[in-house]
Amino acid sequence: MTQLAAPQRRSIARYAAAGWTIAAIVLIGFNLRPSVSGLGPILREISHALDFSPAVAGILTTAPVICFGLVGPFAPGLAHRLGTERLILFCLASLTVGTAIRGLGGTELLFVGMAVVGLSIGVINILLPSIIKQDFPKRIGALTGFYTSALCAGAAASALLTPPFERAIGGTWRWGLGIWAVPAVLAFLLWLPQLALRRATNRRQSGLRHDLWRNALAWQVTAYITALTSLAYTMFAWGPAMLQDRGMSVDGSSQQMALCFIVQAFSGFFVPLWAARRRDQRGYAMVSAVIALVGLLGWVFAPISTIAFWSLLAGIGQGGAFGLALALIGLRSGNGESAAQLSGMAQTICYIVGGLIGPFAVGLVHQWSGGWPAVAILFVAIAAIGIWAGWGAGRPLTVDAVDVGDSSEQK
């Protein structure tokens, strides 16, 4: 048998390493939502078993989202000191442990586990875009699409499968929560070889650190992600209630949410893939925001018999906007470290503001007005911010420029 020449062997090894990294990124993406979104379907059972008040139950669902944002300022610095690959591996281990211990004890372990889960996911959320930028700088759209689709698939799977899993393996909420530690273990094992596959020079990223908090383009990317995240979390938190108030059954509203998740997996793949092939992403950013808004308004005003159509639109818009927002982190960054810094800034704000202020403000407006039409005005205002920010964030510039308005920094 003819032996391959050394350059051919090195080429095959590079392709194999890249394929392994892609598979690991996809599986990690799948694991970034089940520990959180799987809580909703069995929250009432947990509240009854542990005698939670509605306020305590609300804290339980909100705590991971708060943690997503709290780690943002620290994740890039930790990655710079420890190495991005090593820090992600540690967070996958802590995600596994946090997911498992939630069902081992009472209230204390449940909340500790949720906090550990939220902190772990928050760090990984921030670092994966920098991995994509560093390893696949010419394939940002495709890799972000795979990652976004896997994330949406994980959310849909946990929302749909947690109750059946619970019934199948023990009939208790503890098993329903703990089962999601299994795919987290698999992600840990798949990522483990990255410590050997990657070059030692990449384990500690180098380069200038930029003051992105004073960078207009960074704020436009952040505002776009925050506005669209706010709309998405508002739909997750209040969408079923909107439909149920209009006469739809609980099962029917859950099915519409699942439909929205599934569609997001497809649009979250294709939109960043198509957008990354162009120098300018302003059209994609603005159209995605408009479609997401139209879908939400359909849930508020359209005949209940047509809700499936508006769920499709909402899924197309929200999945496309979220996938594009993640892609913009890489597209608007000049290198992996800039991507980590921009990701930290954007996701710190988007998860704290989008995860809390959006749903909280909707609740206040709904309580004040006694209905959903007034909430629709808030939806329009939030989407308008996203459309305005998308116009700036979609320009072919990078945050590494001293003056983001300088056209010489165009890619």
Describe the structure.
This protein is mainly alpha-helical and 411 residues long. It folds into two domains: 1-206, MFS general substrate transporter like domains (Growth Hormone, Chain: A), CATH 1.20.1250; 212-411, Up-down Bundle (Growth Hormone, Chain: A), CATH 1.20.1250.20. The chain has helices spanning 6-30, 34-37, 43-50, 54-70, 75-82, 84-101, 107-135, 140-169, 173-178, 181-191, 194-197, 216-245, 250-275, 282-301, 307-331, 336-369, 373-393. The longest helix is centred in the C-terminal third of the chain and has 34 residues, at 336-369. It is globular.
CATH fold group of the largest domain: Growth Hormone, Chain: A
- What level of helicity do the residues show? over 70%
Strand content: under 5%
Give the number of DSSP strands: 0
Please compute the radius of gyration using only Cα atoms: 21 Å
By DSSP (H or I, 4+ residues per run), the number of helices equals 17
Instruction: List segments where confidence is low: pLDDT < 50 over at least 5 consecutive residues.
Output: 199-208, 402-411
Mean of residue pLDDT? Answer: 82
How would the global form be characterised?
Answer: globular
Number of structural units classed as domains: 2
CATH class call of the largest domain: Mainly Alpha
Oligomer: single chain
The CATH superfamily of the largest domain is known as MFS general substrate transporter like domains
Task: Please identify the structural class as seen in this structure.
Answer: mainly alpha
